[in-house]
Amino acid sequence: MRFDIISVLPALLDSPFAHSILQRAQKKGIVEIVVHNLREYADNKQKSVDDYPYGGGSGMVMSIPPFAKCIEALKSEREYDEVIFMSPDGVTLNQTIANELSCKGNIIVLCGHYKGIDQRIRDIYVTREISIGDYVLSGGELPAAVLVDAIVRLIPGVLNDETSALSDSFQGELLDAPVYTRPADWKGHKVPAILLSGHESKINEWRHEQAVARTRKRRPDLLGE
Q: Could you report the per-residue pLDDT of 47-79, keeping only the tens digit for each?
């Protein structure tokens, strides 16, 4: 799977993509992540990628030509399943979307800045707009990193235990059950006895009950309540 991230501040993505699961996935050759500096596709001497908005108003708008030039260059090299724009007014990212996108091949991700990007880029090139929450950040780089991480960990071979992702919160529309590790008794706070019983079927039943109870308490909307 390949991700091409288009950003005006690519250095913001150096750390997220160089550690932990994302680093491991790239070293294994399972995933390729390439970050493109949008300024390299600007035609003016100043390498500026923004301009004043038509109709007036505050803030600057990211221009069409640099984005179009970069997207067209990438599309000339390979086919892409999605061109995703990280936007606060997009569809909120959830596990179902991450699951779906993990089955794709090549994805372009656009990172906006300033007041946003020219609407025509969204109309012509973007196939999907995704938000990571109902708030505004300074740019699309951090949301892009969140999106890539959520997708990559689902790809077979990335996690050491491939069944781990299947029991994460939101898989099956439930939050995860409580988890424990050693010591079994810490200052009088004990691990539930069922988890020490060795009865796999009973443990699975307990975990499901706990998952439902936690979901009902914290996210009843997931249960349609």
A: 999 999 999 999 999 999 999 999 999 999 999
Predicted TM-score (pTM) of this structure = 0.90
Instruction: Give 32's contacts (C-beta < 8 A, 6+ positions apart).
Output: 1, 2, 3, 26
Question: What CA–CA distances, in Å, run from 188 to 77, 181, 183, 184?
Answer: 61, 15, 11, 9
Q: What distance in Å separates the CA atoms of residue 200 and residue 80, rounded to the nearest whole number?
A: 43
Q: What is the mean pLDDT of the chain?
A: 94
CB 31 within 8 A of CB 22: yes
Q: Among the residues of the chain, which ranges form H helices? A: 20-27, 64-75, 95-101, 119-124, 141-152, 200-218
Beta bridge partners of 82: 107
Domains of the chain with bracketed CATH = 2-152 (3.40.1280.10), 169-223 (1.10.1270.20)
Cα 22 to Cα 93, 96, 164, 169, 222: the distances in Å are 19, 20, 16, 20, 29
DSSP letter assigned to residue 118: -
Between CA 103 and CA 140 the distance in angstroms is: 23
Instruction: Report the SS3 class of residue 141.
Output: helix
What's the one-letter identity of residue 14?
D
Nearest to 140 by CA among 115, 173, 177: 115
